[in-house]
Design brief:
Elements (H helix, E strand, L loop, with lengths): L3 H4 L5 H20 L4 E6 L2 E6 L5 E7 L2 E5 L6 H8 L5 E3 L3 E5 L6 H12 L1 H7 L1
Antiparallel strand pairs: 1-2, 2-3, 3-4, 4-6, 5-6
Helix pairs in contact: 2-4
C-alpha cells in the first residue's frame, strides 16, 4: 500500500489523515470482497483499481476537502447522486467530495467503493 504521506508530501496533516482513512476503507472493502487491487499514480493522483472495476482516485479537492474520483464516462456518480442525494456532496460527474473537518461518511462510501470495484463485472452481466 502506498503511503499517503509520501505520495502527497505537501498536504496538511488533516488532509493526509482523511485520505488515509479513505484509502484504508477501500482496502478493507477489497479484502472483504477478496479483490486484488493495485495502486499507482494517474494524473498526479493516487489511483486504486481492481481487475473488474473502474479506477478510484483519491486526492485533495480544495483547501479543506478531499475527493473520491471515478472516470467521468461511467454511470457511477449519477447512480450515487440518486442513492445519496442528501448524504453525499458531488462535483459534476467525476467526484464525491468530503470535508476534512467532518466524519467520513463510511456507510455511503462503502456502497460507492463496492460499485466502483465491481463496475465492469456488473456491466458484463447486464
Amino acid at each position: 500500500m502506498i503511503t499517503i504521506q509520501e505520495f502527497y508530501p505537501t498536504y496538511s496533516e488533516e488532509m493526509i489523515s482523511k485520505l488515509e482513512e479513505l484509502q484504508n476503507l477501500i482496502w478493507t472493502i477489497a479484502k472483504e470482497q477478496k479483490k486484488t487491487i493495485s495502486e499507482s499514480s494517474k494524473w498526479g493522483q493516487l489511483s486504486i483499481v481492481s481487475e473488474d472495476g473502474t479506477p478510484i482516485r483519491i486526492a485533495k479537492f480544495s483547501d479543506n476537502e478531499i475527493a473520491l474520483f471515478v472516470h467521468c464516462q461511467t454511470t457511477l456518480i449519477e447512480t450515487w447522486k440518486n442513492l445519496f442525494p442528501d448524504r453525499l456532496s458531488f462535483s459534476g460527474n467525476r467526484a464525491v467530495i468530503v470535508s476534512v473537518d467532518s466524519p467520513l461518511p463510511a456507510s455511503e462510501l462503502q456502497v460507492c467503493i463496492d460499485m466502483a470495484l465491481n463496475y465492469h463485472a456488473r456491466n458484463k452481466r447486464l
